[in-house]
Amino acid sequence: MTEQELLQMRDLAEAGQMQFKERANDRYDIGCEMVAFSNSRGGRLVIGINDKLGAVNALSYLELQETTNLLTSIASENVIPNVLIDVENVSVTGGAVVIATIPEGKNKPYHDNKGIIWVKNGADKRKVFDNSELAEMMSECGSFVPDEASVPNATIDDLDADTIKLYLMNRFSPVFKGKNVDELNMKDFSLDEMAEFVIKGTTIEKLLRNLRFIRPDGKMTVAAMLLFGKYTQRWLPVMTAKCISYIGNSVGGTQFRDKMHDMEIEGNLLHQFRTIMNFFTRNLRKVQVEKEFNSFGELEIPYESLTEYVVNALVHRSLNMKSPIRIFIFDNRVEIHSPGALPNGLTIEDIKNGTSMPRNIFLFTNANYLLPYTGAGSGVRRALEYDPNAVFFNGVEDKDITHAANEFVITIPRNSNQAQPQSNLVTDKSNQADNKSKQHRTNLVTRKLTKKEEDIRNFCSVPRTAQEIMDRIGLSNQSKNRQKYIASLLEIGVLERTIPEKPNDPNQKYRRKK
């Protein structure tokens, strides 16, 4: 490196990636700086430049030798475990400057010789006391795998049988196709029978052990509870989502169009995904994309983009951070907050280019049998093709975006910014003279689904007969019940018929409308 390059580096130095010291007089302080760099993303320690003024105060030949030896000694004795640094001497007017390059550590967390753990905090450094932050460091290095950790006191009885069956049928689809088992008749088989189809002579408990959802010590893993739990939040209370639709554009607003109750989101990842997507569909406007008056509208933000972003938040969130996923709908934008910045040194450009380095590898490789993603790193790229206006923030403080430094945030502009003061529905003024039945239909679209209706919607992810739907909600298959729970959902566009041209066909089934 030349003197000119050194001065350019000084002038363009980014906070947190470079630290200047006029002299290496304080051995302990230098060690703390090395610890902070090792626990963060690495950086450079420059000796011979005043950290206040940026003025070069060159080291003499003797100082150069002493400083070089001192830095290597500190790296091996004052940083625990020790680190390897690269030391370079740069000739400048009047002497030389020493540059020590400290790489990001592979054995985090590092601490100084007093046992204190440091990380970079902008241009400064700070101590770490929070166990979740320590766990995050260990996860990055592979010394702790949070999705394979145990869930104390949970048993196989705390898992949802239908979700396990759905997972098995998707993962071992050739086996179940050969046995003529599908989502319509899977309830006819017990979990042990399903396991027997996969491996002859096994039980569901043995199969889940083989698949590593149950640990050798017999305890359920975090991944098992996230994917299959009946009441996941009983065991993992922060593995949830907070969904709020605000009136206005400030997270400090006190008026809401829609605020999801905690009980609505309680459940495993499949339930959370469906509930969040329902929150979007009932709070975002539908835009008419075809000229025909009766054509169906599409969400103002492409449904496919929202699907990718929600799945990413659910699967790639930090399991160490004690905070929920947060989803905010404002008049001018949508924000999706996922706990934890990008892992393993990934950058925003990396994920835009399709680089896939999952944070929770075991969860990631199994969730794709329940959630709609491929795992090939194409999700974000595909989402951006549908909606190129989304903006990503990776652990950067920004008061305008309302997020903290330990979050990955996706901000999606709402182009059709015509929100009404008390409703998220935009109505066409030319339709104001419609008759009462159409007006009633519009009102139904804006209302919130009841729990039974939401259950029916999710149940009909595959086609169901009217009898199956009534059995699901525990009612007799009478016309008044069909009218209340099936016809009403058909009317507001939640369900659709599989044989629309023949409503009374004896083979008629109902499925969730995409």
Automatic annotation (TrEMBL):
Region spans: Disordered: 414-441
Pfam families: Fic-like_C, HATPase_c_4, SLFN_AlbA_2
Name recorded for this polypeptide: AAA family ATPase
Native source organism of the sequence: Xylanibacter rodentium
Superkingdom of source: Bacteria
Gene3D superfamilies: 3.30.565.60, Schlafen, AAA domain
Compositional bias ranges of the Polar residues kind: 414-434
UniProt cross-references to InterPro entries, sorted A to Z: Fic-like_C, RecG_C_sf, Schlafen_AlbA_2_dom, Schlafen_AlbA_2_dom_sf
Domain Filamentation induced by cAMP protein Fic-like C-terminal residue range list: 465-511
PANTHER family cross-referenced by the UniProt entry: GLPR-RELATED TRANSCRIPTIONAL REPRESSOR, SCHLAFEN ALBA-2 DOMAIN-CONTAINING PROTEIN
